[in-house]
Amino acid sequence: MAIGISNFADRICETVCAKRSILCAGLDPQLRYMPPPLVKSIVGKYGRTLAAVGELYYEFNCQILNAVFDIVACVKPQRAFYEMYGPAGDWAFVRTVAYAKSLGLQVIEDGKRGDGGDTAEAYADGHLGEVPMFGKGEDVMDLITLPSPTRVDCLTVHGYIGEDCVCRFITRGVKEYGTGIFVVTKTSFTPNSRVEQLVTRPGCEEHGLAPTMVWQELARMVEEWGVGTEGESGIRNVGVVMGATYPKDAPTMREILPNAMLLIPGFGRQGGGADAAVVGLREDGLGGIVNNSRGLIYAWQKGDYACEPEKFAEAARKQALADRLALAKAAKNAGKWPFDLPTAA
User: Binning pLDDT at 50, 70 and 90, where does residue 129 land?
Assistant: First the structure.
């Protein structure tokens, strides 16, 4: 399958085909879950400081990335876990993104940005595109643009403000630089958001019509906004979040968005199994990325690969291999996996 790599969706599709993997590793470091030997080593060098937290998160991420880079299709750092430590955390995030890219991985920033007007454009420029910089000539205000130091391949975006938010991300990032966005549409939280579940149009039992909810209305808007962002793969760079914990809704999401990429959280410790996670895939095995965060990076703590904390990266690799295979088998059973199954080692 020859697919171009001109944009985020195409690169993901190419990776899925090459690695036989739809697995995304969520890089969500939390101090309470860090392996004690690594903590002791870092604190010994940097003291009990904010800088030590940043170094700890970066070192932890690097070891996880070294263990799984050849297995996962992409990685998804949750920005909140880095921002909470200020500049030290942000620096850990920037370095983690750079290291992941050096290993050939696509990076989805789970930042859930959303606003309108100039603010939305600033978010789009800073996370997905280029930023203004002083000019090089005599007039320093003859501005130029440079790639943003915090630029990623894809960003999660809130769609509550609508066109004035999402379309600015599409114009400033997706269409201009080939980066991608996932609009938060159907989350994995249980119980689900009351806002997402609000009924906009009542159903009709007599005619077998189900009620229409807010998440479906938003999905239809995403379908409209994403026109023209397709790559050579036919998959759009404007996708949605579709939680693995709601498999009954996944077919409806795919029906509304036949050519969109789905970011599928909730697999693993949030309770979504492999069979549920692959429901929204297209028949060609493309169009979906399944995320596992805590269940993968903290596999050393409990489960099939629990072990001594010094071997946390080894446990993460074993979990990633098992997840990749489980997802491929589930997709195969669903008639949505035209590839060979990956190996378990």
Answer: very high
Give the start-end residues of each E strand in 80-177: 106-113, 130-133, 144-147, 154-157
Residue 341 has pLDDT above 90, yes or no: yes
Q: What is the rounded average pLDDT of the residues 48-69? A: 98
**Contacts (Cβ under 8 Å, ≥6 apart) of 80:** none
Q: What are the angstrom distances between the C-alpha of 256 and each of 60, 101, 149, 164?
A: 39, 32, 35, 22
Give the predicted TM-score (pTM) of the model.
0.93
* Catalytic residue selected from 112, 175, 311, 332: 112
Distance CA 10, CA 14 (A): 6
For residue 51, being part of any structural domain is answered with: yes
The pLDDT tens digits of the residues spanning 273-290 come to 999 999 999 999 999 999
Active site residue 112: yes
In a domain, 338, yes or no: no
Q: Which amino acid is at 238?
A: V
210 or 98, higher pLDDT: 98
Residues 6+ apart with CB under 8 A from 261: 9, 12, 180, 182, 235, 236, 237, 239, 287, 288, 289
Distance of CA 166 to CAs 45, 113, 319, Å? 44, 10, 35
* Structural domains of the chain, count: 1
CATH at 323:
3.20.20.70
Q: How far apart are CA 195 and CA 217, in angstroms?
A: 12
